Amino acid sequence: xxxxxxxxxxxxxxxxxxxxxxxxxxxxxxxxxxxxxxxxxxxxxxxxxxxxxxxxxxxxxxxxxxxxxxxxxxxxxxxxxxxxxxxxxxxxxxxxxxxxxxxxxxxxxxxxxxxxxxxxxxxxxxxxxxxxxxxxxxxxxxxxxxxxxxxxxxxxxxxxxxxxxxxxxxxxxxxxxxxxxxxxxxxxxxxxxxxxxxxxxxxxxxxxxxx
Length: 211
Fold this sequence. Notes:
The chain has helices at 47-51, 95-109, 122-126, 185-192; strands at residues 8-14, 17-23, 25-28, 37-43, 56-69, 77-88, 90-91, 128-134, 138-143, 161-164, 206-210. By secondary structure, the protein is an alpha+beta fold. 22% of the residues are buried.
């Protein structure tokens, strides 16, 4: 679920108020925290990242796979996948872990890209904060399949069905100042890997399970 998501939402209390912020992230299943590690990054001046190490936070991801269109408004729904990770944020201070975490963030967007880039400068590292969240407490939830209508509505003559939704990659656009440089393999591979594959076998049920 996390691998399929490009953006997560970080929920926490900041200055006495609940805040939910979208952000990119990286995942290290073999990270130093229990269950593996989810990494968030941002400016060292970001209030959300400054607050995260002092409290439990929630990180969520959601993918919409289809609009479930029933014969009544009550039974309209969505086919979706969602994940929730809950844990105490930890400020990453070890330089080696910090560099590895930032590589995971880059590679989460385009796998393998970090190896093709110049390394971060000391100034860039000093300006970037990285928060680690353990993956030990997490859950996923999903719904897939067709509408579930009341028996009395089946003969109403109203159409019902599912409108599939997916995320796809458009045509790669080379920057004007990179003209003449071939598009790297990691970028073309990422384009070919999208859209994200939806669940193959429909089921009308909704369920939750450990991540």
